[in-house]
Amino acid sequence: MAIHNTTIKTCIQTVSKHASSLTEEKLATNLAHTSMSATTVKAHTQDFNALNTNHSKMHNRTKRCQIRNKIPSPVNAELLEEELQGYDMNLRNMLVQGFNFGFSFNFKGTPSNETCKNHKSATENPDAVYLKLAKESLSVRIAGPFKEPPFTLFVCSPLGLVPKSDVKFRFIHDLSFSKDDSINLGIPMEYSAVSYDSIDNVVQLVKSYGQSCQMAKTDVENAFRIIPIQKSDYNLLGFNWNGFFYYDKCLPMGASSAPKTFETLSVALQWIMQSKYRSGGMSHILDDFLFVGPPQSQKCNQDLQTFIQLCNRLGIPIKKEKTVLPTTVITIYGIEVDSNIMECRLPQEKIEKIQAKLHEFSRRKKVTLRQLQSLIGLLNFACTVVCPGRAFLRRLIDLTIGVSHPCHYIRLTRESKADIGIWKSFIDHFNGKSVFYADKWLSSDSLSLYTDAAGSLGFAGVMGYKWFAMAWPKHLEHHQIATKEMFPIVLALELWGEHIQNTKVLFLSDNMAVVQIINKQTCKDIILMKLVRRLVAVALKYNILFKAKHIPESTEGSTMVGTKSNTCSPTFVGDLTDEAKHLINSALTPSTKASYQKTWQKLIEFLGHQQISLPLQLAQVANFIGNLFTKGLKPATIASHISALSYVHKMLNIQDPTALFIIRKALKGCENLTPSADARLPITKAILDKMIINLPSVVRLHVHQLLLKTIFLVAFNGFFRLGELVVRSKQSIGRVLQRQDILFTWEKGILKGVELTLRFFKNNKTNKPVTIFLSALPSSPRICPVNTLYAFVNTFKHNTGPLFQHTNGQYVSAHFVAEQMKKLITFIGLNPTQYKGHSFRIGAATNAASLGYSEQLIQKLGRWNSNALQRYIRIESIRM
């Protein structure tokens, strides 16, 4: 050979001086200076392996041992611990411990001595493997080569390569091999399951900062490889190459727990930025970090530079070539986001790849699992921009259930072929662009969009001044009613979809079957399924998201008690026009109707086997009042139950026993025998401040501290009932304040306030939402509801459902808040029996009155419709 082992050694030593910034190109360049071909590189790397093996026996043994014992990570654990002061203690300790001594691999299985062949992708590209091994050896991220297994119990998993570009490969340590006895199989799901941010959150950030907002991004270099593994797990990470043994000392690409482990660091970095350095909008997926700031502002660039400086201090390498300075058009998570025209775009090469796949599948009867998974992956990626398309992924995914071997053939069913056909026809005409959706769901009522179907007559639809009406074609005359109800909905969207494009539409229907079919976007009926596909095809074309909600059908003429309490008597209903009947049946809000129905259910339970006839007997009503009183119900609650009985009698135009003297006196007796004083005291601003200060002493988890602080401040400043913010029962999940109903307002890059749209609240007789505006309190940051809510939203990062959810997506219950309040109130030395969830609302009213607000203004702020407000104002409590 022209090049001696000493030349190899000298070259490697020269490169090792710059190991921290080593790239494959630099390594190849250094080796190229010795005039070696790729084959010679391989040969001499083998010589280097042998030289390296013998080198430990010759000299500098102490230095070699120190290198082998050193944790192979550039991250400064001490500085990281300083930056994480105030962070969740368990997570902080895990990170610091991990960077000091290595992270646990969380393997719970039983390892066995195994050797296996490397994958074909590696053996067919040996030069790439040698190059990667040399680089990783110089960075001390792998140990080896060894002629013999370095541990008594040593698990070897195969190597593989995945192409990244024409000349680059991603090095994979396949810990999922073999399927029956792999390392990944021994890692429990809780250590590998991880939820990522999404393009939806990026869109929300862009919308919150407004048109032409600034966006920037950067990327952590060698992300997984800066995470060291604890030494006790080294024996699980073995591999062999060309007859020598090696093992990984850092998190390998191929470990099921790798994403979650690195995500723990990423989440902590985002917390540092948002909590300590007050960054603006921020999002991340693993090693990709996005920053969003106001238009024509330096905030975005400041946040980017602060993050880079933070990473430099901590020793976290940044990939400079992937850093993008503030701009209005950026590609993030594979999607191009344009804040100038507020739209997302799929890359053209992705569209072409999807088109080619769909064209291929449309001609196939069978495909392999690997091929089907590839198509599903592409379509799932497309759904980040084309949301309605998710409906046509479900049946394709179902085909993969129970199939594990990548080369196993799967027959494409008729239904899946139809779904592929819809995708193909859409993608062939899709330009890759999707305008951002509006935040709010628009009901079909608000769009003046109405459809109806009569079983034997025909169907009709109206939208504004446009309309259609037809008799049923003969081939549809005998179909089920669900099909007939669905037909005009689909037709309306096909005719008028272009007028409501880029919106989220909520269809209101009194047919539960239709509601379920629209929401699930699937059914077993062939005809209905054809209609579903046409509905989704239109939604794809016009970028419309849709769902349906069931509304009870009003059955005029019914006198059934306890089922339809909002109906008219047949003795005069025939004299009323449809408009009059509609007005009468709309007199009660949905919540009041539900409450009245519960009253009749209680009455039926109380009377037991007694026959109920209308009008009710005087004794039945009086005894019912007595029963409710003995159960401990408050006089106001009992009175509302009696109002429910009265309402039905009045609607049926029959004698009302609840108006009799005896009943009125029974209700008065309930009031006289019940203490009138409300024991609940107001949570004043002073008490609220004390609660906020002492939260860390009572609540252990930082995320729970932020969650409760946000609930407390929003409840107080917005005059909220606790039941309007947190869930009391599963039935109320959709009736509390929702994530999509908050909108932050900015002025010159400064957060000025937040608009909260409350759609369901007590005494909402108009059934219309109200908007509550909370102003930021820059002079009192600790008790500022706006900045606290903003920090909460950016920490918890959920986009839909109730505003207040835990980090795992579970809604926050009223019971959870009550329990934490009880502990906190006790800790600050107050009586927990006197301070309940309603104390925030009482405190808000009392505080407003003490500041000189008029009763009329307080009544408007707190959404009171009566003089009940006066019971809430407790000025004496402030004086005390």
TrEMBL record:
Q: Which CDD domains match?
A: RNase_HI_RT_DIRS1
Gene Ontology terms, MF aspect? DNA binding
Which positions fall inside the Reverse transcriptase domain?
A: 143-337
InterPro entries, per this entry?
CB, DNA/RNA_pol_sf, DNA_brk_join_enz, Hepadnavirus_pol/RT, Integrase-like_cat_sf, Integrase_recombinase_N, Rev_trsase/Diguanyl_cyclase, RT_dom
Keyword set, alphabetical order? DNA recombination, DNA-binding
One GO biological process from the UniProt record? Answer: DNA recombination
Key word Acetylation present: no
Q: Domain (Core-binding (CB)): give its ranges.
A: 570-653
For this protein, the record's PANTHER family field holds: REVERSE TRANSCRIPTASE DOMAIN-CONTAINING PROTEIN
- Protein name from the UniProt record: Reverse transcriptase domain-containing protein
- Taxonomic source organism: Mytilus edulis
